[in-house]
Amino acid sequence: MKRLVIFSVFMVALAWTQKTNYKGYKLLRVTPQTKEQLAYLVNLSRSPDTKGWPSDLKTLDFWRDPTTLAQSVDIFTDNGALMEQELLSKGMQPSTLMDDVQSFLDRRQAENTNSIAAGSRFTETYHTYEEIIDYLNQLANSNPLVSVSRIGVTDESRDIVTARISSGGGDTKPAIYLECGMHAREWIAHSTCIWIIDELSTLYGQIPEITGLLDRFDWFITPVSNPDGYVHSWLNDRLWRKNRKINPSSPCIGVDTNRNFDANFGGVGSSDNPCSDTYGGPSAFSEAESQAMRDILLSLQGRAKAAVSIHNNAQVWISPYGYTTERPADYAEMVSSI
After folding, report:
1. Alpha helices (H) in the chain, listed in sequence order
2. pTM of the model
3. All domains of the chain in start order, with CATH
4. Which residue ranges does UniProt annotate as crossing the membrane (predicted)?
5. CA atoms of 13 and 6, how far apart (whole Å)
6. 324: pLDDT confidence band, cut at 50, 70 and 90?
């Protein structure tokens, strides 16, 4: 058994080997205090291509977007000194959250490897795509509440899998759909979906609140909605965000599937440059990942009471619509449900 554990840890360590290195990259935090400062940050965050950035910056990524005054904004960049000077020139006072992002990633690698070696529960550590699929299949084989289905196939021939957790009642019970991992690097999102699947399926009949949730709703949960990107984030680039679609007109790979839906496609916050992390693709629903989400939600039409996409870092609840300040007709109902 000891040999098996050592071998497993060794394989996990290999999976963490990164070809993309973020040594010297910084994560800055700044808090806009004036309307002018907020407007500057908003405009910068909506310029997904280098032409709208301060000169000599190659990487500028908002990990926490500017939304309101006095709310912190997190900026990831390859040239922290230059970005700090730019922010200071606007009257803001930036602080450094991570002085060397690669060092942070290396520490998290060691923590995850050590946790697995110590025998932590599956839901307490990060796992590869293959391990997650194996876990779901084992759960479906051992727990009558759980079934697993393929809702799509990626460009690299990986299954997009959804778990259904149901206490019965046929296909008429109201449904809730959860999606995690649309942005490949947001590993805590994948883990959140896995944790929810585990809680619902193992604590039914033991905790009244969970029993009530399952008796009232069927739950459909997609824990890895961007398998190709997720695998790439393990093997090649820990901070990879998009899928792995080959773009015929560009050497740059990937589409931001979060911007590939038929809702103001190509609008604010999206780029038509395939080299951008916010490239929305050639057309709405051009990607297997967004098609899979569309199709499962259409199959739940008339049943779905909520559809939630889980991301990390921003610490906000976001409701439709993301591209306008106009509120949907059922906004008050959504807010009251939170």
Report:
1. 2-16, 35-45, 80-89, 101-117, 129-142, 187-202, 208-216, 227-235, 288-299, 331-337
2. 0.88
3. 2-19+103-117 (no CATH), 26-99 (3.30.70.340), 126-230+289-337 (3.40.630.10)
4. none
5. 11
6. confident
